[in-house]
Design a protein that fits this description.
Radius of gyration: 28 Å
Mean pLDDT: 81
CATH class of the largest domain: Alpha Beta
Largest sheet: 7 strands, mixed
Distance between the termini: 57 Å
CATH superfamily of the largest domain: UvrC, RNAse H endonuclease domain
Number of strands: 22
CATH architecture of the largest domain: 2-Layer Sandwich
CATH topology of the largest domain: Nucleotidyltransferase, domain 5
Number of helices: 20
Structural class: alpha+beta
Number of domains: 5
Strand content: 15-25%
């Protein structure tokens, strides 16, 4: 124990809070929470270690050089602070849920006048209804296709314009859109139609079928037989889907059943069974990863606690009951936190026998199968990657297959808001945590790709030589997007900095490969496995650069528009741009969301929304007030 740690331990208060453990370089190793900081942090330096934690702690303590403590008023505030610090620092000794990626959701945009079903990566409190998350992208697309076939909704946007009714498009004739743009369904009926989709996603299938039967009978009574036939087909399709959902309880309670399968190494698979209204409607598998201090040293209660906090922090729905295989660490605090998310009591149960225990066993078996399948997929991908890199080594005449490849690209529009991107593939697979983006500092007012490429490469490799941790690793192969000119820029920068690396350029036209000291490009067969890796790498670098470039351009447009709105000064403009980084996000924001930004008020928020959405303001003047329902109110 260092003198710094000894003095910190002596001064710790007996109050709730969060603590941060750092190494000698100041890097965050671990973040935790405590009801009593003095007792909790001191327990790490006792022979047995803190209660409920595994032997991995002894490995971590060998690197701890300093401890910071942050006091809060309540244990619940300490929990929220811990989650925010983990998200900010991504400490290597904290367990992470699949690298903290944002799982996709289905959202029904009830905040819009004519709602639609979309895919989103963020669940917000914005008047819309969210369903998910979906860990399996295929399952999400399958659900979306099924919904479109069963119900249909407007996707073209014509219903948002105040135009005379027109002929319905092909989607209407395929049964995928009720055609509000053609006046074939009223706004109120369309919103009721979308609420039926919401009920279906919530597992309330019987209510949806009953409502459709009533509509079918009413249509038949009015002798609208074609409409009745369409509704009949819809009912039959829903019943076929419902047949695949297994009824596992009769109490109609919404619950999540969680099973866990541990493997050697750094991963643990968690399976969640979603039971809605007594039916098993969906199941998803998730992966808990630990960068250091492998999962085998962590106890199940600790792993469960880590998973529950990270999963439900981003989940759109918290059920009435959560069924677990074991009691998690700090179970009472977890229950209090979940109740706050749901708005009422959440029952966290740990069954020892009976029907619920059988559900836990079923979830564990599914988790084991999901883990084996994932391992098989990863092994196939590794083998394929090794083969591709071997072919690339032979084609480029390299000494060894390039394990780490970096690719650089430039995105600009007439020399403005120019950016550069650095994309990294490790073992022929994207390593997104290694991606870096650069905003060009020395813009000339006219496009100069060569100068911008030199700047980006010089900044990247200078940072490496300066010991910047973000650029610590050098690539086994450096790729620049372009031809001979860009290749010359890369060689010039490397020579200037005294760095020797294999380097090449990949031209978009004909996918020609340019190598140093070769006049003519290397032309690889389009089916060449090595070329496949290079093209995917180059395309990913281009996508990453263009996305950042568009974001900067959007902020520029937003900034110029905000300058024209009365009452928006520099401070308010800066706050709005920080909260809504794109023009599209600003336009979609409600008055309440705009007013919640620091320095804003309701009156100014209404003025901003009116200025950015003139057509919506015009429609209100015509007496078309937005309606509200249980799906959400339009501001």
């Amino acid at each position: 124990m260092t003198e710094t740690i000894h003095s910190k331990l002596a001064s710790l208060p007996a109050k709730p809070g969060a603590y941060v453990m750092r190494d000698a370089d100041g890097h965050v190793l671990y973040v935790g929470k405590a009801t009593n900081l003095r007792q909790r942090v001191r327990s790490y330096f006792q022979p047995s270690g803190p209660k409920g934690r595994g032997p991995w702690i002894h490995e971590m303590l060998g690197h701890v050089a300093d401890i910071d403590a942050l006091v809060t008023h309540t244990p619940l505030e300490a929990l929220m602070l811990e989650l925010n610090l983990i998200r900010q620092h991504r400490p290597p000794y904290n367990t992470r849920l699949s690298d903290d990626k944002h799982y996709p959701y289905l959202v029904i945009t009830f905040a819009d006048e004519y709602p639609r079903v979309e895919i989103t990566r963020r669940a917000k409190q914005d008047g819309n209804s969210y369903y998910g998350p979906y860990a399996n992208a295929r399952a999400l697309r399958r659900t979306l296709r099924t919904l479109r076939q069963l119900f249909g909704w407007c996707t073209c946007g014509k219903a948002f314009r105040r135009e005379a009714p027109e002929q319905p498009c092909l989607d209407f004739h395929l049964g995928r859109c009720p055609a509000p743009c053609a006046g074939l369904i009223s706004k109120d009926d369309y919103r009721a139609h979308m609420r039926r989709i919401a009920s279906f996603l919530a597992g309330q299938n019987q209510g949806v079928v009953q409502a459709l039967r009533e509509r079918m009978e009413a249509a038949a009574a009015d002798m609208r037989f074609e409409a009745a036939a369409r509704i009949r087909d819809q009912i039959l399709a829903i019943e076929r889907v419902c047949e695949k959902q297994k009824a596992i309880s009769t109490d109609l309670v919404d619950r999540d059943i969680i099973g866990l399968d541990r493997a050697e190494g750094e991963t643990t698979t968690v399976q969640v069974l979603y039971v809605r209204a007594g039916r098993l409607v969906e199941e998803q598998s998730f992966t808990l990863r630990s960068g250091q201090g492998g999962q085998e040293d962590r106890e199940v209660p600790e792993l469960l606690s880590d998973f529950l906090y990270q999963y439900y922090a981003q989940a759109a729905f918290v059920p009435k009951e959560i069924v677990l295989p074991e009691e998690p660490v700090d179970g009472d605090l977890l229950r209090e936190w979940l109740a706050g998310l749901r708005g009422n009591t959440v029952h966290v149960t740990v069954p020892r026998r009976g029907e619920k225990r059988q559900w836990i066993d079923m979830a564990r078996q599914n988790a084991a199968m999901a883990r084996v399948q994932q391992e098989q997929v990863e092994e196939l991908e590794r083998a394929r990657g090794q083969s591709q890199l071997g072919h690339l080594r032979d084609a480029l005449g390299l000494a060894a297959p390039p394990h780490r490849i970096e690719c650089f690209d430039i995105s600009t529009l007439q020399g403005g808001e120019s950016v550069g991107s650095m994309v990294v593939f490790i073992a022929a697979r994207p390593a997104k945590s290694e991606y870096r983006k650069f905003r060009i500092r020395h813009e000339t007012g006219h496009p100069d790709d060569y100068a911008m490429m030199r700047e980006v490469l010089r900044r990247r490799f200078t940072a490496h030589q300066a010991g910047d941790e973000k650029f610590a690793d050098l690539p086994d192969l450096l790729v620049v997007d372009g031809g001979k000119g860009q290749l010359g820029c890369a060689r010039e920068v490397l020579a200037e900095l005294g760095i020797e690396l294999p380097v090449m350029a990949l031209a978009k036209r004909h996918e020609h490969v340019f190598l140093p000291d070769r006049e003519d490009p290397v032309v690889l067969d389009p089916a060449h496995e090595g070329l496949n890796v290079l093209v995917r790498l180059r395309d990913e670098a281009h996508r990453f650069a263009v996305t950042y470039h568009r974001k900067l351009r959007s902020r520029t447009v937003s900034r110029s528009l905000l300058d024209e709105i009365p009452g928006i000064g520099p401070k308010r403009k800066q706050a709005l741009l920080a909260a809504f980084p794109s023009m599209d996000a600003l336009r979609k924001a409600s008055i309440d969301e705009l007013a919640a930004v620091g320095g804003m008020d309701t009156k100014t928020a209404a003025r901003v929304r009116k200025y950015l959405n003139p057509t919506k303001t015009l429609s209100r003047r015509r007496g078309e007030e937005p309606s509200s329902d249980e799906g959400g109110a339009r501001s």
